[in-house]
């Protein structure tokens, strides 16, 4: 097992990043919906008129990962819809996001088919999100094989363990380099010892605590209090700064409420508030907001929690991967990826 490596990729995150990263600037900054549609013809496409800007960027990234990381096992997980079980619990979940542009929607379908044709394991579901699928797969196999998750999504930090690393993709390469330099000496990271994907910062359990203020398993608790604007998870309003010291003391959202519930009267509650201020350094009391939004805090944590019970029957061997160069070449020909053909 020492030479084996399992790379799990959030396909939706990678494709969306490459779509917007490879859009013509005129289209990227255009606000008017009709004018945007008029500019779609400027998006990279093949001779059949199929959009390819996101697919090309993502496949170029994948080829680089295959060349540098040499994984023995791989998988991609994609989101199918926003109407998952989370929206059943909270109808406004991800309600702040606009419709997926048609050129991107088309590329989701074509990218999934391309990866499948090339022999990759591609997984998606109408009720579960990509992170639930990755969480379930990695939780099943991480003790059998070193596992690495590639994503931009901070939700995945909760999957970091002694067996699983998250290669968290930063917006800029400079940010990743700054983080590596910041923690390299203290945590034994050395660029000569570890080759990381472009713009990636490798998160381990101690690095998660050092950089993000909580242990990996506390990420859902942190979002339970702070919320997450990207997913429209509400959290508890006005309590963000108190989240980390409270979680450092009580461990979980439930633990915080246990401490509150142990207070028999107003005097005890006041004493607890004083303790939070003097011992935990919380200057503005979050007591009122925590009590008022208790149900929202618990719901927010539940929404942020990656599920690990997605039902699948694949064995670890099913994720073994070796690139079929003939099939890859056929796909690259189909979509006009001439520079990738040369690399094959």
Automatic annotation (TrEMBL):
Keywords: DNA-binding, Exonuclease, Hydrolase, Nuclease. Pfam families: 5_3_exonuc (PF01367), 5_3_exonuc_N (PF02739). One of its GO terms (molecular function) is 5'-flap endonuclease activity. InterPro entries: 5-3_exonucl_a-hlix_arch_N (IPR020046), 5-3_exonuclease (IPR002421), 5-3_exonuclease_C_sf (IPR036279), DNA_polI_H3TH (IPR020045), FEN (IPR038969), HhH2 (IPR008918), PIN-like_dom_sf (IPR029060). It comes from the Bacteria. SUPFAM superfamilies: 5' to 3' exonuclease, C-terminal subdomain, PIN domain-like. PANTHER family: 5'-3' EXONUCLEASE FAMILY PROTEIN, FLAP ENDONUCLEASE XNI. This is 5'-3' exonuclease. It comes from Butyrivibrio hungatei.
